[in-house]
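Hi everyone, sorry if this is the wrong subforum. Our group has a chain we'd like a structural model of before ordering constructs, and none of us has done structure prediction before. Sequence below.
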Amino acid sequence: MEIQKQILLFLSGTHSSFQNILAQAFTIFAEEYLLIAISLFVYWCISKKKGFITAFSLLSAMNVMGVAKAIVRFPRPWTVIEGLDVVRQNTATGYSFPSGHTTCAASAYTSLAVTFKKRWLSISCAALIVLVGLSRIYLCVHWPMDVAGGILIGCGVSFLMASWLDRLYDDKARSVRIAVIIGIVFTAGMLLLSILLLLEKIDATAFEDLNITFAMFGGLGFGFALERTKYDFEIEEGSWGRKVIRFLVGMLGVLVLMVACKALLKAIGIYNPLTRAIRYLLVGFWGGCYPIIGKKLKLFV
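Answer:
Right subforum, don't worry. Here is the predicted structure as tokens:
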């Protein structure tokens, strides 16, 4: 522990405007808007199967990470070390171990590397995982052990799930059943956590982020099952103009749910753990079922 303190104090003393901007640029590669956009772009525009593997692996890793945070409850560095220069503290929610940004980067980019099997992409993904992890330590929002734990969870979950999800996708009926089960289980978990958070029966720091990942996974499960049952779109060759428009329209829906709905809920005074979680549930559901609407708009063939 003392060694980790000294590492963070040393890095804190090296902070400069340029280095801080650079580190923040790297950490953005693991933030929710970008990872949602990457996952949905792959799912809607490049390869439905690869997008399925990436999205389900990512949310599985996020839930493992959330459970670990709720159990371990390790304090953030700035609560232990006096005089620490912390940058971008607003991105550090919940407890410290493991690093959420690192877990998400490790899972998402490992999934992309494993599914696409392109040498240049694998090297790029590995570099991004390392840079995201280092940025979290440099910004002094995480301990080095948090980053190590995030890499182990993110890479481990994605490696372990990739081949199983690949086989699952090929069995349409089974994939729909599993997706519905995921929807039911994680939505029920979200509702339970939301009620306990509203009643202040559980630690908000420990469970608010887990509540969100439960919600998004439940929504994605229902959305995927509905789309695969009602439409089961396939991605056409070429047509990049249509694909770009398809993606932009889909992301507009995500932004409405993420940004506009949040502002509205706050404006009318009902933004709380339940409404926040429902918002993420709808984001996951939209990600899965948007092609049904997109087909009617002739954005999918």
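For your construct planning: Residues 1-170 form one domain. The longest helix spans residues 240-267.
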